Amino acid sequence: MNRTLFAVFFFFSAICLKSQTSTSNDSLRYDILLNSKMLESINLTVDFIPSFDITPDDVALLYAPNQFYVLGWGGLLPLGAKIKGDIADFAITPNHLIMTISEDYICRIDSTGNLIKDLKLPNKNMKLSAGKEVMFVMDQNENLEKKSVYLMARGGKYAHLFDTDSPINSLIELNDSLIFASKNGIFSYDYKTKAVRYITSIDENKTIKSISADTTNHIIYFSTNNAIYSYINYKPVIISEQFGGLLKFYKNGLMIFNSENSFFMRIENMNELIIAKTKEVKESSKIKKFKEILTNESIIQFVKDKVSEEQIIYKINNSPIDFKLDVNSMVSLAKQNVSSTIIIAMENAMNNL
């Protein structure tokens, strides 16, 4: 089934689901390809797993227990035979094959729907992500003391990259690093230095579910279950609070899939929106939004109060500031146990004034 995956099964005239399209005044184009009413219209009741990918034929690949589906402009169709086994996650590899995870194995699927075990993984129900030339697998079990990320190359060989305290919900490969989301924060892992660095975060009571990137325009998008953000001028900026879910930026369009309500849409011309949001951020940065002006002493007090590093950096990026960052001041900060990551965030914030 894998090697002929995208050669057949695209006779969408058999089931015609009319997509709902709208264009806003700012040239954004919204195409709703799937929602619960569309499923009702064809008498299909399924619970999709929270995973999707885009095929080389520009259609979306979805999975509900025991069946893959393809979703395109013409409709939704089952793909291949029913799957005989449980799939926790799936992704399309760089050479256009479906890779699945079932329990603690990487599996392929034969023509009759059987899962063929190819590679044993370190733990059960790990998460998959496709890179430019390799695949990545990530621990999802909260009970593990350390949650690991592995690189998996062709031939079934995989190597441990790094550990985190919390499961990684989403990971993408960007230039010479990995960008990943854990809890409410976004971080990077540098292949060369093997360093994990903080990028940004949102409110601590929210969880980032997905990350994607427009590599042409160097724009990072990320989302919760009900909101979409972008990373603009070193800050998380809300793009929409009307919907959220899993993201993939593909051919000038942002794909959004929410498995909980069977909602799938595409937004085109996102770059124009980002340009407008960038202008808004620059204008709003001139306005004092908070009464408290952060100083070196404020940061030192946060550290003494055991405020998390992520939250301190969030406050730095979203508050008026007046830091002193001469050599003596930075030495003093270090003596007060202020981390180098926080000091770098203070420098970046001052440089952006």
Account of the protein in words:
With 353 residues, this protein is α+β, with helices and mostly antiparallel strands. The protein contains six helices and 25 strands. It has helices at 36-41, 270-284, 296-304, 309-317, 327-335, 340-351; strands spanning 20-23, 29-34, 53-54, 60-64, 67-72, 75-79, 89-92, 98-102, 105-109, 115-120, 127-130, 135-138, 147-153, 157-164, 170-174, 177-182, 185-190, 196-201, 210-214, 219-223, 228-232, 235-240, 246-250, 253-258, 263-268. It has a five-stranded antiparallel beta sheet. Strands 3-4-5-6 form a four-stranded antiparallel beta sheet, with no helix packed on it. Helix 4 runs parallel beside helix 6 (340-351). The protein is globular.
What proportion of the residues is helical, as a percent range?
10-25%
Share in β-strands: 35-45%
Instruction: Identify the overall geometry.
Output: globular
The CATH topology of the largest domain corresponds to: Methylamine Dehydrogenase, Chain H
The appropriate CATH architecture of the largest domain is: 7 Propeller
Strand order within the widest sheet? 1-2-25-24-23
What is the CATH superfamily of the largest domain?
A: YVTN repeat-like/Quinoprotein amine dehydrogenase
Low-confidence stretches: 2-18
Q: Which structural class matches the secondary elements?
A: alpha+beta
How far from one another are the termini?
Answer: 56 Å
Total strand segments: 25
Rg calc? 22 Å
How confident is the prediction overall: mean pLDDT? 86
CATH top level of the largest domain is Mainly Beta
Biggest sheet architecture: 5 strands, antiparallel
Number of domains: 2
With helices defined by DSSP (H or I, 4 residues minimum), what is the helix count? 6
